[in-house]
Amino acid sequence: MSAASSSSTLPSLVLRMWRQLEVEAGQRVLEVGTGTGYSTALGAHRLGGDRLTSIEYDSAVGRAAASALAAAGYAPRLVIGDGMRGDPEGGAYDRLIATCSVRYVPMAWLHQVKPGGKILVTLSGWSYASGLAHLTVTGPGTATGRFLPGYTSFMIARPHDRPPRPTPALLPGGERPSRINPAVIGTWTGGWVAQLAAPAAERMGAGPEQILWDISTGSQARTAPGPDGGWTVVQRGPVRLWDRVETAIRLWQAAGEPHQEGFGITVSAVRQRVWIVGEEGPGWDLPA
Ligand SMILES: C[S@@+](CC[C@H](N)C(=O)[O-])C[C@H]1O[C@@H](n2cnc3c(N)ncnc32)[C@H](O)[C@@H]1O
């Protein structure tokens, strides 16, 4: 069975995102992920088609959206291409809204959105955790922002998707007690923290029986309930995945276990960092 490559976003979510984008009349907006064209139609209705460009990766999906938008009487500029590269014709935008998620903020966006402009995008990863980021571009190639409350997730952008991997085989490794209850990484924000700590890992399993598989190195970690009411972890490979996850979860717990709105992000040409508490607080580099 092949995975879906495009899906229609919940209409209420799209509407909320257009509000969160804080778009004003007369502004130019770049949308990434046209999909059915529903969110594009809302944007074109609000701004006028001449102010909106929407990029779709999949040409068949893009053609269907073009017909639907024309039938509905909207004429935004539609582009078939990789939105991670921004608008191929360049141009300065006031706002960028993405309805596919990314592992890190594409650098092209930070040069196409004007300083002072905003980017609304869901950060996700190969462990399927997500956070909706609202960034302000602070200069060419730099931005800072906060994550918004709620539970927003989108399918991951095509070039950011996990590469093909062999069927995971659980192999022996070093065993020790776990210092955290592994079930915490099955929660919305606990899973987000684990993904930040092990950004090349895929998460499988449930409850106290979690499996992390590092796509880059093949390293693995798997947890299980222990005999004494605690938990154990078996780790194998060059990346000690559970060591990283444990440290991150304990930092997050020490900060009071904030939900996503307790996190922020700072982006530059050399580093993309998600942090809690403040810019100087604990944080994790995105795999940019
Ligand atoms: C969740 S759907 C968007 C739904 C859309 N907002 C709607 O209202 O129907 C995500 C879309 O992003 C597209 N996509 C994925 N990667 C992309 C990329 N790199 N550039 C542009 N579009 C991309 C997918 O093909 C898919 O159509």
* Percent range of helical residues: 10-25%
Strand content: 25-35%
Distance between the termini: 30 Å
The residue-averaged pLDDT reads 95
Structure description:
There is one protein chain. With 288 residues, the protein is of the alpha+beta class. It has 2 domains: 11-159, Rossmann fold (3-Layer(aba) Sandwich); 163-254, no CATH class. The protein is 22% helix and 30% strand. It is built from 6 helices and 15 strands. The strands form 2 sheets. A 10-stranded mixed sheet has the order 3-2-1-4-5-6-7-13-14-15, with helices on both faces. A 5-stranded antiparallel sheet has the order 8-12-11-10-9, with no helix packed on it. The protein is elongated, with a radius of gyration of 20 Å. The mean pLDDT is 95. The structure holds S-adenosylmethionine. S-adenosylmethionine binds next to α2 and β2.
